[in-house]
Amino acid sequence: MPIVEQGYQHWSGRLSGHTWRWLTVARQGVRIQFRNRFLRYLLFAAWTPAFLLVCALSIWGLLERKSKAMSTIIAFLRFMNPHVIRQPQYYSSEIWILVYGYFMHVELMFSMILVLVVGPGLISQDLRVNALPLYFSRPLRRIDYFVGKWAVIGFFIGMVTILPTIVAYLFGALFSLNWTTVINGLPIALSAIAYGLVICICAGTLMLALSGLSRNLRYIALLWLGVWFISSVMSAVLAESHNGALRSEYFHKVSQHPVVRLANPNTGAVPVVQGPGYWRKAWRHFEVYQWRADHHDWRPLLSFTGDLSRVGDHLLGTNDAWKKLAALEPAQRQRIRLLIHFGGPWYPWYWSAAVLVGLWVISVGILRWSVRSLDRLK
Amino acid sequence: MDEQNDGLPIIELDGISKIFGSVTALDNLSIKIRPGATGLLGPNGSGKTTLIRTILGLIKPHSGRGKVFGLDIRTRQLDIRRQIGFAPEDDALFPGVHGIESVAYAGELCGMPHSEAMQRAHEVLDYVGLGEVRYRKVESYSSGMKQRLKLAAAIVHDPRLLIMDEPTNGMDPAGREHILKLANDLAANKGMSLIFSSHLLPDVEAVCRRILVLSGGKLLIEGDISELKKVHPSSFDLRLKESTATFAEHIRAAGCEVEFLGEILRVKIPAGQTRELLWRQAVVHGVQIRHLRPQQSTLEEVFLGAVEHA
Question: What pTM did the predictor assign?
Answer without folding.
Answer: 0.84
